[in-house]
Amino acid sequence: MTARSIVIGGGVDELVAAHQLARAGHDLVVVAAPRPVETATLHVGWIPPNVVRDPALHAELRIDTADPWAVAALSASERLELFNDTRRSADAIRRLSPRDAQKWPEFCRRMHALAGMLATLYAEPPPDPLARAPGEFWHLARVALRMRGLHKQGIEDLLRLMPMSIADLLDEWFESDALKGILGAAGVMHLCQGPRSGGTAFNFLHHHVGSAPGVFRQPLSNIHHVLSASRGVQIRDVDVAQIRVDGGRVRAVVLANGEEIGASLVVCGVHPRRTLLELIDPVLLDPQFVRAVQRIRSRGVVAEVTLTIDDDPGFSTLSIAPSLDYLERAYDHAKYGRISTEPFIEARYEKVHASERGQVRIHAQYAPHALDGAGWDTVQCDKLARTVVDRLSEHVPRLKSAVLEQHVLAPPDLEALCGFPEGQRYHAELALDQALWMRPVPELARYRTPVHGLYLCGPAMHPGGGIPGAAGANAARIIMSHSRKQERNE
After folding, report:
1. Quick check: 68 pLDDT over 90?
2. What is the extent of the structural domain holding 227?
3. What is the 3 state secondary structure string of 252-272?
4. pTM higher than 0.90 for the full model?
């Protein structure tokens, strides 16, 4: 079989790239290993306007902007609810701290202005600060003009915030431990870091991009289902064994079943390490570049726990992150290769259709991929499940007796079953040195690899996980720009 263009992977970024390239006239096929499980995704993220361009796809898109967007457990009977309306949130915060309630609207306004700056950067390929091409010069100029629009206060906020820890940022603004805990959790989401680690304020801002002022959790959406169900591209459920390269150019993709598909363009959404060091022969690449790819940090610290229950637990969403100190102690366990005994938990209850049962889907952080002295096994998974149920039961007493079944996806399971390297959903940790024009390494920041015709488009690429489809759309934009240049030169 021959095809001019192949997209490897079935995630949102890969499907967005496939749809946009197909609309541009590429004869295209998507090959993706079938996933045997569905993960308990709690936060999908903001979908930039340029991601779903097909009106038919856009019409099917549904975004769940839950209200309240966060419910923080304070005790068995008390909750702190934060709403899409900043005034309602301020009223809820006032019970804990009148001072914090007074500061809340201004905090939300300033964070939203900074997140708008990131939204501009995320909706297009990252600028290259060292490039000399006229197009890149104007790209950098647009970024500079956008920054000037923040005015003096906003520019100072942005320059101070980027390298800060989320703990330092929140300590400047608020006094309530409960408020700082629930906000601080956004700063460490999917990171092998604690709230006192530098750069976590940037991660906090990243998770605010595209949301309304005062909403610091990303929404759920059905974008993956919409893209998968569309007939716009052909999708084959089969894994890839090799990307064949000859003379520095992509020539074909070899499938796990032995079939070979000829191609002059391959767009890959799997982790850069697997793409460049396994699917192609790394001997073809510069040794220094290979070392840079090997050093991409992808430490997974999140396990997903699903509880099947026979009683309504009394919540739709519930978070356990009572303070910054709590989060830091939880990270301390993971830092030394241990499962936290008091993890950061975000739980979401879903009623099973036409059944008396329901499911509680739980994000449990910190549970490191590499355990000290032991690997993940049934004993470790059961230990984590008991810890999660015990912690939730402190705030929802009837939960423990309602549990019928429990299922744990530890980081190694997420790696084996879902393709998340080391269990890291974002493929590469969203740390400041792996962001923007350095994501995941500077040599790959523009989606193009040293192999002619091979591009990357997965969550490891700019702007990173939590902005579904943006990397795919940006990669497609770069590919189409290169194609136009080649046509002009021919």
Report:
1. yes
2. 5-35+44-62+222-297+427-489
3. EEEECCCCEEECCEEEECCCH
4. yes
